[in-house]
Amino acid sequence: MALRPYEQSRPIHLKELIYQSEIVDAGIARIQAAISSESQIAGLEDHARKRQNLVELGAGIQSVLGAGALASKILRPVDKSGQWAKGRGDDLRATLALGDDVLNSRSVRDSLEHYDERLDSFTKKDYNTVIMTSWMVMSQNTPLGNGNDRPILRSIDPKTLTVRLPGRDPKPGEDYSAGEGVMLSLYDLQAEMHDVRRSAERALGIAETDAG
């Protein structure tokens, strides 16, 4: 019996989603280690260690966001991707029984893919010319604000692992609410990826049993 459309490629995509979930876990562990190390580094003499720790923190965050964005693309390709991609996404979401979830949002994907544009917009604002633009470990009691008028390019809350990414400015005629940063809990993203992984593993297990 001939395979229905997408059945042949489905296991490859499911295994890829499992892999991206594992990358998210590794990234979360890296972030937690960097945050823990931050509290143990004191004094200007430790500038090199602070810088390296900042790199570790950023690397962990970007790996989590990147893996989440890749999973989102696999599950929900944009319309211009073509009919095959749309069908593949529809098939995978049906296989995994996915509803309206964190991965449904394109805001994080857009913030990563259009980062250069967001950075240009950020640097054009006079009040942002001298602000620290690296990841800042913010306390849970510090209000981050979500408008693009805040002189914060990106930040992370060390307790909730909620990150703030640059948002796009409103276009002419749009309400100012369009000019907001992107807020996302990395723990929520991790939980969603775990759900996807468990569903993918079940689907692969059923497929392997039937094939045998």
Structure description:
The protein has one domain (10-211). A hairpin with a 5-residue loop joins strand 2 (155-156) and strand 3 (162-165). Strands 1-2-3-4 form a 4-stranded mixed beta sheet. It has 6 helices and 4 strands. 54% of the residues lie in helices and 6% in strands. The two termini are 15 Å apart.
Q: Secondary structure elements and their pairing?
A:
Elements: H1 10-38, H2 47-75, H3 83-96, H4 107-113, H5 115-123, E1 136-137, E2 155-156, E3 162-165, E4 182-185, H6 186-211
Parallel strand pairs: 1-2
Antiparallel strand pairs: 2-3, 3-4
| Helix and strand composition category | mainly alpha
Instruction: Determine the N-to-C terminus distance.
Output: 15 Å
Tally of strands: 4
Helical content band = 40-55%
Shape descriptor reads flat
Mean pLDDT: 79
Largest sheet: 4 strands, mixed
Give the amount of beta strand, in percent. 5-15%
Q: How many helices does DSSP assign? A: 6
Radius of gyration: 20 Å
Q: How many domain units?
A: 1
Q: Unreliable stretches, pLDDT < 50, 5 or more residues?
A: none
State the strand order across the main sheet.
1-2-3-4
Helix-strand pattern, N to C?
A: HHHHHEEEEH
